[in-house]
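User: Please predict the structure of the protein below. I'd like the answer in structure-token form so I can feed it into my own downstream comparison script.

Assistant: Understood. Taking the following sequence of 551 residues as input:
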Amino acid sequence: MPVLRFRLSRLRALTGLGVEELEEALFRLKCETEVTEDGEFIEVEVNPDRPDMFIGEGIARAVRGLIGAEKGWERPKVVDSGLRLLVEEVPRRPFIAAAVVYNVNVDEEFLEELIQFQEKLHESIGRRRAKVAIGFHDLDKLPSRELTYRVSHLDTVFKPLDYPREMKFSELLLIDDRGAAYGKLAVDEERGSHPFLFSGDIVIAAPPVINSDVTRVEPGTRSLFIDVTGTSPEAVAQTLDIIVTALAERPGAYVGRVSLEGRAPWQSTPLLAEKLVEVDVGRASKWLGIKLGAAEAAELLERMRFRVEGVEDGTVKVVVPPFRADVMGEVDLYEDMAIAVGYDNIVSGFKGKYHGGDILWEHKVARAFRELAVGLGFTEVAQLILTSPEAVEASGMKELAVEVLNPVQREYSVLRPSILVTLLQAAAYNQYRRKPLKIFEVGHVVYLEEGEPRDELRAGMLVLDEEVSLEEIQAPLYSIMEVLGVKFRALKAEHPLFMEGRTARLVTSGGEVLGWLGEVKPEVLEALGIEYPVAAAEVSLEVLSRWSSRT
């Protein structure tokens, strides 16, 4: 979880609380705290679902509400900033939102927190800048009120932050740690380009890598221009809202709207998007285990800095502010109500009957299958559900396979449609060990059925030897079926893995397909690098559990 460091004197001034009271309030807000030995700083471990508390103003807003010093939340004053941002096509990082916050009045202490706020947002919502990146600029230093977000050549010249001279962006990528860490996130190597934010003709940022020194924020900066770029429009808009609403808590601060043109999905930002949620007080009381009236529920929600729009017929209409992106629905508000009440004040009142838990029958059957297979001389293997597309294609099951959209490695980019795919790979790795090689696996497979992915628990068995016949897999499998009390029959069939005439489909007495067994085709073995004959079987444990004896 994110750990933030604040000057204790600043948090005390913002909240009006002493150290012990502040730590108690933060603990109730799901934060762990530790004051440094010199008493100058307090380290706060903030829950990652509360990025609005990654800065002192956000912490103070939450704490002052919890203790009842302030209630509800009102939208900040918003004016037209007069800034226009033209958004051109930026393939690798297409979305940008921007805003102005006036009268922030940056001093040395606040600048430290602002940089920390930016980096913690980068690490959490921003996924280390891959999803979202943030730029803070001194509004008064903008060269022009006309801004453009577009791609430009890697040899574009600008003056990077903390550098005394201008340089090509391609040079910065080679000499700067930030260039090495984040440069590849947005560089289009084929076109030799990268996104830049221009003010007039001057580069003020190369997101997600670095800002220009031209708009450096420093002590004495009065107002901030903020840009947020990324790959997700929702994340970009939410991040900007969180930042703007936190900075607007500064004394005398207010917000400036930026007009967007071109390929932007919004006409202006920030959105300051609110959400209306209706809370059923009776249901909330049941969930929390305490009796609440509508007025009491409304008061609790206001202390958690929600705005109550109305109370009627046991329902509280609540406006969720823009900085609470973690609130997805009514249940999330129940949690905040519990925090406001205090978990120590909620007394357990469970009066129901106790019912002992038990293992699902399907899992009992899977355990029994494992024990019986081991008893028959098979060794269990455990493998990932992800496998390589080459293995799936070699097995003749490409049409059934579900591919991963953004795989880390091609070797693990497909979900196995059959447990025999990975079982055969295990056989290939171990084929030179002592024979016969007898292995089995119990696990999930995912395959396409009528165009939709389906997850199923299956078991597979395999025998590899110098010479192997169908009977060597048939006998142990049939023994397991007999012990489990499953009545079935074997029908002649075809299967992409097995040889014609040496394949059987197993069908239960009710006509449900239980599984398959057969001798693996030589071309499949050759494609997987297996030099010995193999007989294998696969059964659905879901079907098996439905037809197995429960005695």
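That's the full token string. The chain has four domains: 3-66, 78-269, 275-345, 361-547.
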